[in-house]
Amino acid sequence: MPDTVSRPPKAPQTLDLAAPPDDVNSVHALLEAVWAAHEDVGPIDRISFETALIELASNVIRHGDDGDGVVCSVTVDVTEDRIEARLIDSGPRGDIQLSRSELPDELAESGRGIPLITALVDVVRYEHDADGNRWFLSRRRSG
Amino acid sequence: MNQNVRHLDDGVAVLSLGGKLNMVSAPAVRESIAGLVAGGSSRVVVNLEGVEFLDSSGLGALISGLKSTRQAGGDLRIAAPGEQVRLVLRLTNMERVLVPFETAEEAFARA
Predict the structure, then answer these.
(1) Which residue of A has its CA nearest to B58?
(2) Closest-approach residue (CA) in chain B for A51
(3) Which end of chain B is less crowded, N or C, counting CB atoms within 10 A of the terminal residue's CB?
């Protein structure tokens, strides 16, 4: 495909997830559709962004459930130079220190999700408002 | 996630996984390794050749298995990780603890 052909930007793709019964495999399926629509996103960017977003979604599903499950909306947008995700969830206020990215002890069985996210994307933002928790991830495309 | 167990001639158990090792599949993998240890197999190789995705939940299952095999006098080793799995191992500094071998047969060859 010639580089000179300018293609129209593709619309962001959104998944509305209710866990249970939905789980992170729904987020994998969303990303599969995103990558299919953006064949120009390179393998390193794909695996890096997918790992970060699955870690975030896992965190939301695991910690955001106060007994009634979690409802969340995930939107992924691929631009010329970035891959971005916006996630809004219904869970209680997240008690997550995004700046704390030290890894746990070698034999700890948890605690690596947030360090992985911060290592894989350039921007991680979190805010809480009347609608719930808002998360934003952005990775600059490397190829 | 697909799981399959075979035993090598020297008694090493090879657990071959296929698919995504994430928070959905991690509990079953944790149980499989615990079952192997309970059944007397304390030397376990987890063959990751068919694993297209590993996250921190999946890593937690492998570390759980590492601890239970060591407590039983054995060890857990991994074989044939793909690019995404290697990225996660590298970024979590786990390559020293879960040293990747190229094949399941090599994992305990010099044990």
Answers:
(1) A109
(2) B55
(3) C
Contact of A139 with A48, CB cutoff 8 Å: yes
Are the CB atoms for A17 and A85 separated by under 8 Å?
Answer: no
Are residues B56 and A108, on separate chains, in Cβ contact within 8 Å? no
Residues of chain A with pLDDT under 50: none
ipTM over 0.90: yes
The answer to whether residue B57 is domain-embedded is: yes
Q: Is residue A1 part of a domain?
A: no
Chains A and B form CB pairs within 8 A to the count of 68
What are A22-34's pLDDT values in tens digits? 999 999 999 999 9
CB contact under 8 A, A51 and B83: no
Identify which of B22, B24, B60 has the shortest CB distance to residue A109. B60
Closest approach of A52 to chain B, Cα-based (Å):
9
Structurally, chain A folds into a number of domains equal to: 1
Residues of chain B neighbouring A55 (CB-CB closer than 8 A): 55-56
Question: Does the residue B110 lie in any domain?
Answer: no
pLDDT of residue A4: 53
Domain that holds residue A59: 13-140
- Tell me: the pLDDT tens digits for B12-46? 999 999 999 999 999 999 999 999 999 999 999 99
